[in-house]
Write a sequence for this structure.
């Protein structure tokens, strides 16, 4: 059966998040409304998710999946904010973000849009250049950005305030209909001041890098689950009888969807358990495996739901249509065959422990 989320304790942050999402109308995901809902999710303790590897990684991923099932552009912003908090705790625990601030992690590297970092007399970071794929640029208060110096080492991770003269948010870099609410535009930096977290390259080599990468799979899973619920509701509708051709087709599709979702849910639970048991170990193969599983699961769900329901929900249901447009775009954050190659190369030298029952 489709995997239900265990009910959180009444009054907990998880319960408050679920109540907020439950009462948010479809209009809350429109421009402006989505920004307000995001800020509410970042208020109080609602975004204070368990640190990956702390023993509650699955609870963290359930929160991401719940938000994703509501709206994928919303979870893109929410996951970035919660990831920034986790990175601060890992690299700079003595200087955590102030309450009320909202953060993004802008670490995508385009050859034509790479930031440069230099250092002023006080050893503070000074950022120049253009950064692409800056989700939430128009509504966030702060961001963590990757930037490079002239020494040829790994990238520095720099925390900076976006409301300063050296930062200009453009309207360029995003033409997609899907994930339009994430507003992932280009941002220009001209002498913006910031503070480095850790040392050069520490952002990439820390254990939490792949913990966060695995958490994206929970977002993809939540997006697929929301589409699957539409199919289940359609099959349970009063117009269906057990022997009508539409009902038979939908039941077959839901069976296939059930296997895809249940398999990925089991792998997510297994991955979360492994990370909690090995918080300092290299989680790259675990993260790649669960990301690729979630991507394949989402693809199967989209295909089965679309074939079973036809054009109706794509054309007449605004919420479904937005989810169906968002999910393929979000999935392209996957490394696809490059990730399969990396996983295969790892498996060729490390044995088949993950295959054992």
């Amino acid at each position: 059966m489709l995997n239900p989320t265990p009910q959180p304790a009444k009054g907990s942050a998880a319960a408050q998040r679920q109540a907020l999402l439950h009462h948010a109308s479809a209009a809350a995901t429109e421009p402006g409304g989505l920004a307000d809902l995001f800020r509410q999710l970042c208020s109080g303790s609602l975004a204070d998710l368990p640190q990956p590897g702390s023993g509650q990684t699955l609870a963290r991923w359930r929160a991401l999946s719940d938000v994703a099932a509501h709206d994928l552009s919303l979870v893109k912003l929410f996951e970035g904010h919660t990831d920034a908090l986790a990175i601060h705790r890992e690299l700079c625990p003595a200087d955590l973000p102030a309450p009320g601030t909202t953060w993004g992690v802008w670490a995508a590297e385009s050859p034509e849009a790479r930031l440069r970092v230099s250092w002023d007399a006080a050893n503070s970071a000074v950022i120049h250049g253009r950064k692409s794929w800056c989700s939430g640029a128009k509504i966030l208060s702060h961001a963590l950005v990757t930037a490079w110096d002239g020494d040829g080492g790994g990238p520095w991770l720099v925390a900076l305030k976006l409301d300063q003269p050296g930062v200009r948010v453009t309207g360029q870099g995003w033409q997609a209909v899907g994930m339009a609410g994430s507003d992932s535009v280009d941002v220009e930096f001209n002498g913006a001041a910031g503070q480095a977290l850790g040392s050069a390259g520490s952002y990439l080599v820390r254990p939490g890098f792949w913990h966060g990468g695995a958490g994206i799979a929970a977002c993809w899973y939540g997006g697929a689950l929301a589409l699957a619920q539409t199919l289940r509701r359609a099959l349970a509708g009063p117009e269906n009888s057990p022997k009508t051709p539409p009902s038979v087709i939908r039941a077959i599709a839901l069976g296939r969807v059930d296997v895809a979702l249940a398999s990925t849910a089991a792998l997510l639970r297994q991955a979360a358990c492994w990370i909690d048991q090995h918080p300092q170990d290299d989680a790259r193969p675990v993260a790649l495996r669960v990301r690729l599983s979630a991507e394949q699961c989402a693809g199967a769900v989209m295909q089965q739901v679309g074939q079973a329901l036809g054009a109706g929900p794509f054309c007449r249901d605004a919420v479904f249509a937005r989810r169906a447009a968002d999910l393929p775009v979000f999935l392209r954050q996957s490394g696809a065959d490059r990730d399969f190659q990396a996983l295969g190369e790892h498996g060729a030298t490390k044995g088949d422990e993950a295959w054992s029952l």
Q: What stands out?
A: Residues 13-91 form one domain. The longest strand covers residues 185-197. The chain has a mean pLDDT of 91.
